[in-house]
Amino acid sequence: MKFISTRGNAEPVGASQAIMQGLAPDGGLYIPESFPSLAHVNVHEISSYPELAYEVLAPFFNGDPLAPYLAEICVNAFTFPAPMIQLEEGRFVLELFHGPTAAFKDFGARFLAYSMEQLLQLQKRKLTILVATSGDTGGAVAAAFAGRKGIDVKVLFPKNRVSKRQQHQLTCWGGNIEAYEVDGSFDDCQAMVKAAFMDEQISRQWGLSSANSINLGRLLPQMVYYVYGAVRVQAASGKKPHFIIPSGNVGNSCGAYWARTMGAPIESVTLALNANRTIVDYLKSGNYAPRASVETLANAMDVGAPSNMERLFALYGDLATMRLNVSAYSIDDAAIRQSIKETYEQYGYIICPHTATGVRVRKDFVSESPTIVVSTAHPAKFEMVVEPLIGHTLEMPPALEELLKRDTRCTSIGTDYRELFQ
Ligand SMILES: *Cc1c(COP(=O)(O)O)cnc(C)c1O
């Protein structure tokens, strides 16, 4: 199996090379040259999530150096469940927040970390991952890479601009994870990472690499829980379910579109967006106009220029095909609050502000088939928003509580990237 660039000006590469490179040399994103069919997978004979992950992902690693290790990588990466909650007849929530940092990004970040560790052992080399974070992404990456051999991680975050809990999750690791508190903004942090990559001497000497959400190694594992969820609901109801997915950079939902392309029993995929409505406007007008993001309560989805749209354009080509396959709705902050409150009152079920966009979109959804809203984070991560709406305090998930008990350590620096390498 080869992977090609969305921009069409790079050599096709195998999965391992795509994972190590991140971005294709022509600036595009790696996508599968073709999609294998799921027909070979007898899903009803599969007994565990890691086993299903192996079966779904194996064709993408056909002929790749990682192929012999794929089963073990899946066992190591996917150590937590993905429960399907039924709120009422035909209405489900797929909870993807039972990993170490209580958000769906744990699936992709952990698969990427174990894949890179194995590749580096095979290639007998080391690398240093640089991550600039405004909060959540850095936490998932730090947690996933902590203790992985041959990989050092440097996490940069803007001083006084991430929440206390987020800062704790960035600075509680030690070992191969080094946290840097930058006296500047998130944009400064990003600029420092860019400058470090541009510095050829430093980049070569330290073996710099990234682990951001456009990496193929984070995208591929995000197909698996859609296969898993769709198969379970179809088995129980006899019908293919619709997925409704809270989206920002569209990496999570890209996994759903890819799974559907492989033949997973998925009726449709709908994007729930916050007030960042670039994709809604595009589907309406036909004119794709990326823009600056606006701040919302669902802040992990505050994206005005969704990077994985490039992968959807490659999948669906023209506007008509896109409209047939992709629908999107924008939910504002007032409706997010209302959705959290209503869901609690109606079902006694507590959702995070991101998941709330999906639940709100479902409210107007008309179909005979079951619907699955994807829950992307544990509500306790956003207690400042959620607690006043439900009127009581939230219990932390055990994994997160464990992290918050650890000691923290970080290095304070200015905005010169060279301070990272002293
Ligand atoms: C990252 C994130 C999203 C958005 O996912 P994309 O892949 O960027 O579309 C939604 N909810 C939460 C909690 C997230 O952390």
Supply the key terms.
Rossmann fold, 41% helix, binds pyridoxal-5'-phosphate, five-stranded parallel β-sheet, six-stranded mixed β-sheet, 422 residues, 18 helices, alpha/beta, 13 strands
Q: Kindly report the spatial arrangement of strands forming the biggest sheet.
A: 3-4-12-9-10-11
Instruction: State the CATH architecture of the domain at 79-102 and 219-397.
Output: 3-Layer(aba) Sandwich
- Low-pLDDT stretches: none
CATH class of the domain at 79-102 and 219-397: Alpha Beta
Q: Number of DSSP strands?
A: 13
Q: Give Rg in angstroms.
A: 21 Å
N- to C-terminal distance: 41 Å
Percentage of residues in helical conformation = 40-55%
Strand content bin: 5-15%
List the total number of helices. 18
Q: Roughly what is the average pLDDT, rounded to an integer?
A: 95
Structural class: alpha/beta
Topology:
Layout: E1 3-5, H1 15-21, E2 30-32, H2 49-57, H3 70-77, E3 84-88, E4 91-95, H4 105-123, E5 127-132, H5 136-145, E6 151-158, H6 164-171, E7 177-182, H7 186-198, H8 200-206, E8 208-209, H9 216-219, H10 224-237, E9 242-246, H11 251-261, E10 268-273, H12 278-285, H13 309-316, H14 319-325, E11 326-330, H15 333-347, H16 353-363, E12 371-375, H17 383-390, H18 398-404, E13 411-413
Parallel strand pairs: 4-12, 5-6, 5-8, 6-7, 7-13, 9-10, 9-12, 10-11
Antiparallel strand pairs: 1-2, 3-4
Pyridoxal-5'-phosphate (PLP) binds near residues 246, 252 and 253.
